[in-house]
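Reopening this ticket.

The earlier resolution said the output was attached, but the attachment link was broken on my side. Pasting everything inline this time so it's all in one place.
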Amino acid sequence: METINIRTTQNVVINYELAPLRDRFVALLIDIVVVLAVHLLLRYALSFLLFPGVLLVTIMEYFGLLAFFFYALCMEIFNNGQTLGKVATGTKVLKVDGSDPSLSDYLIRVLFYMIDFLLSFGVIGAIFIATSDKRQRLGDRAANTVVVKLNVVNMFNLKDILNISTLEDYEPIYPDIKNVKEGDMLIIKNALLRHRNNPSSNNSSMINKLALKMIKLLDIKDKPKNSIEFLKTLIKDYIVLTR
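Inline output:
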């Protein structure tokens, strides 16, 4: 399983599984089927309304190609880096630094479909994805993006880390934690999970840095002695105060 470490703006490293070649092509196939289905429906509808024979075929063939590029671009821009194919395969586009791609990044990726898949029948794209250490096709390299798996490790909810039924009589210790965004709490959860699975010095350092950031954010006067227990307490407080 190929993975990539992405450092968030909170200076926490999150490990993502890179989307394998199989998932990339399944997602592409689904997207092609979606666009092709819409294309055929429009083609048959217009054949009864406006254009005759050869002229219709010529217009619709060009329209179909442009429609795919337009579909891929709009879906990734407005659906958080996911086309319908990527949603089905549980993948999405991210910048290598973990940020969301910009409009120009998405545009570059779509334009390189011409080289990666269309002109080479997918051979160039497949070769680069299979041989790149970050599984990047040419479009990914040009836009500095990667396609990652949104697997269970990175996507389960805050409640999955604890048994909520045991918190009925729990009294929150840090009430201001309720003002923190859930995305930030998920970063804490992921950091704890990463440390539990691999208690290395780097992961321990990340835990301590994250704890210090939360101490400063919440304006806590007495520094907790155990960073791990402190972060777990923050998660429990957050769940109780926001559920």
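Reporter confirms the inline version is readable. Residues 169 and 227 are 24 Å apart (CA to CA). Confidence is low (pLDDT under 50) at residues 152-157, 159-165.
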